[in-house]
Amino acid sequence: MTLGVVVFPGSNCDRDVQWAAEGCLGIPTRFLWHEERDLSGLEAVVIPGGFSYGDYLRCGAIARFAPLLQEVVAFAERGGRVLGICNGFQVLTEMGLLPGALTRNQKLHFICEPTDLKVEPGSCSWLQGYSSGEVVNFPIAHGEGRYQADPELLRQLEENGQVVLRYCRNPNGSVGDVAGLTNAAGNVLGLMPHPERACDPATGGVDGRRLLASLLG
Amino acid sequence: MPLYSARVLVSLRPSVLDPAGEATRAAAGRLGVDGISRLRIGKAVEVELEAPDEATAREQLELLSDRLLANPVIENWTLELKDASSAGA
Known about the structure:
The structure holds two protein chains of two kinds. By secondary structure, chain A is an alpha/beta fold.
């Protein structure tokens, strides 16, 4: 039972995810280079933060065409668990595995700071380690994290319980204070904040541990 | 095959806030250029494409614009296709 961590040219949180999963939680990990196609033996796949392919054109726009991600689509369609963090969330929206889009922060700043988030786990199996309405603290580090969805889409997402993480104090202008959401089936989760940076007591809190631990079901 | 030149203009949808445009508008006022009521920033992508005929060129460029150059969730795009030049290979 192994966790796959996608590595694009320009990824920079791949090793953070490995440290959090393997170093802090004892979950075996395997790096997946963007040109690979082999996802055998993996329980879940993480698309980490960074600047995939330099984020040219739009964040995540070019990553979407990576050979590996064609396999990740098939993996997700078979019910495999896919977690996209920060740039990984942007990639998931560009791929169409998650609805909506992420764009420039309202006040244009790149924001890097600890952020309080309200967890609304509902039936989301990723977040069953958290209680409903619990406030957790994960760092954010992004310039383009403003979640966009038209009012009708946002209403549907909320009705379906897909908005599972919201900012307590909206830092970037995201509609509905959305910080993280799942697909309709619940096996794909994307979030802008970094749970992998909230796993090691040496660097702050450990609120992210329960999320990463749930990757292996 | 004829060589087609095109320009694809990508802009944020009107309903999506353009903070970079707003910041630029504010700077225009400080430059002394007053009276700008709207300033939106987009992208212009210049493309040259070989295709057997104009209909095929248009079809390929539309696919490119809709699936790669723009994200239709937040952006609109328009395609300007020029006449084929004879310089094509």
